[in-house]
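Example for tutorial group B:
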């Protein structure tokens, strides 16, 4: 069973759209985030005078599905953010960046992060964000930074793990892994996994398999998908085209596309739409491989099987 975690969130100015801090028990890291409109208040915070990692996040005008992200490190976050807030020049030399709407910075409560630590973290984070593929990293190629003692690298591995845990809670999904947990590792051991579901479109020879793992719906490697989008414009069409562009869907045999690796989706319907090349109700389309039970019926069965204490009867609910 997956071990629970406790994250402490604090609304600095008492509003959900203002500054927010986050901490994890037994972690020396401290996260501060807020909108660009609150930058004047944010740079006055004591955390901004420390050594740390920061993320500038904004929409990508060329891709509505994924944000633009800039990842940086500095000895003085306040000075660097003021630098990035300048109007962006045509040659890009002003240091200003126009795209970002939110900022998130990670520092250490005990102020033990050094310049060497954050340079190492920056190189890892740029590489990971690029590999995960949930955003477009505007840094370009990550610079390898290996000039760190072995013990410090181990400490930074733990620090990085906590960053990847807390950022999705704050709405920053670009570091969350899309790959299925590998058999034998810790994530696999603690993962909750469903039976195998199948979705077939016999007319086109399409057959796909999927599993739900820790709340995410994964279409499995080798599953087939339609070679082109055939449904109405809009909906999941942009997701379908994005997956082809990213190489998640590659040409297969008999004129079909094939999933080159296990791929996570936000819902069974999103997965079904990409497989079929048109909108589809994933709760009905996906069925348990062994029994033919629909995903919706299977999920309802899991919920109904949960024992509750002193729960009201159906008659009591209606009265």
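The residue assignment follows.
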């Amino acid at each position: 069973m997956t071990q629970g975690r406790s994250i402490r969130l604090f609304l600095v100015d008492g509003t959900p759209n203002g500054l927010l801090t986050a901490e994890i028990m037994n972690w020396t890291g401290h996260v501060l985030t807020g909108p660009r409109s609150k930058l004047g208040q944010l740079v006055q915070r004591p955390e901004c005078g420390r050594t740390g990692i920061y993320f500038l996040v904004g929409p990508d005008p060329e891709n509505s599905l994924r944000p633009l992200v800039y990842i940086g490190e500095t000895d003085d976050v306040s000075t660097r953010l003021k630098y990035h807030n300048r109007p962006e020049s045509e040659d890009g030399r002003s240091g200003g960046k126009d795209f970002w709407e939110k900022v998130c910075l990670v520092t250490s409560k005990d102020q033990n992060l050094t310049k060497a630590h954050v340079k190492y973290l920056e190189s890892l984070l740029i590489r990971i964000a690029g590999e995960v593929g949930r955003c477009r990293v505007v840094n370009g190629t990550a610079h390898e930074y290996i000039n760190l003692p072995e013990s410090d690298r181990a400490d930074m591995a733990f620090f990085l793990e906590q960053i990847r845990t807390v950022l999705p809670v704050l709405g920053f999904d670009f570091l969350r892994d899309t790959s299925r947990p590998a058999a034998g590792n810790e994530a696999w051991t603690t993962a909750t996994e469903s039976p195998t579901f199948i979705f077939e479109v016999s007319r086109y020879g399409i057959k796909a398999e999927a599993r739900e793992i820790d709340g995410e719906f994964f279409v499995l490697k080798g599953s087939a998908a339609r070679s082109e989008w055939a449904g109405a414009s809009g909906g999941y069409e942009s997701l379908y085209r994005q997956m082809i562009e990213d190489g998640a869907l590659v040409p297969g045999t008999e004129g079909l596309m094939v999933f080159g690796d296990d791929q996570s989706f936000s819902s069974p319907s999103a997965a079904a739409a990409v497989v079929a090349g048109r909108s589809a109700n994933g709760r009905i389309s996906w069925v348990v491989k062994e029994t033919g039970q629909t995903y919706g019926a299977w999920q309802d069965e899991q919920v109904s099987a949960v024992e509750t204490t002193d729960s009201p009867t159906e008659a009591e609910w209606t009265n």
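The chain has two domains: 7-169, 188-304. Compare this with the pattern of hydrophobic and polar residues in the output above.
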